[in-house]
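Quick one from the shared queue. A colleague (R.T.) flagged DUF305 domain-containing protein as missing a structural entry in our internal table.

Convert sequence to structure tokens.
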Amino acid sequence: MFLRKLSLLVVLLAGLLGAGTASAAAQTYNDVDAEFTRMMIPHHYQAILMSELAPDRAADPELKSLADRIHTEQGLEIRMMQGWQGRNGLPVTDPEAAYQDLLAKPEMLEQMGMATAAEMDRLATLSGAEFDRMFLDLMIPHHDGAVVMLRDVILNGSDQELNQMAQDMMSTQKAQLAIMRDMRESM
């Protein structure tokens, strides 16, 4: 576990420092890689917005801790993906603007396991056990949607750096899914 976290930290630092700069002549990515980052950034952004509600609303300390981890990890992953986009000469996705665009596309939200604007608004009105249940009821399909997206880029993308990032994200998402399902079953 320590080595995996250390590996993720090294990848993150390399991304933030601009290591591995690719020239157009040495392009290693394909359309699947580019689309993955363009869509996963706003997907992660919604998880961050959901997680930001937990400190003041959640009743379960374990859920608060999980939300804090999701907030931190997905914020770092957004920056890693933006760094990858920039190093590859792609437009860098603005998380908030891309998220707002997605909210207007209910079929895309559903396909990606994301909450609707109405569900996000409802979550923001809840507290205590009600908040905890709805947070998990929204975050579990959200993570399931991420796993589908990650599987696609791992199988069909061509960039090795992004593939490693995606594999690390997959491990994190699956571990968090197991925790959330256990939490939800115990409610």
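The chain is about 80% helix and 0% strand.
The helical segments are 2-17, 31-57, 61-87, 95-103, 106-111, 117-125, 128-156, 160-185.
Added to the table.
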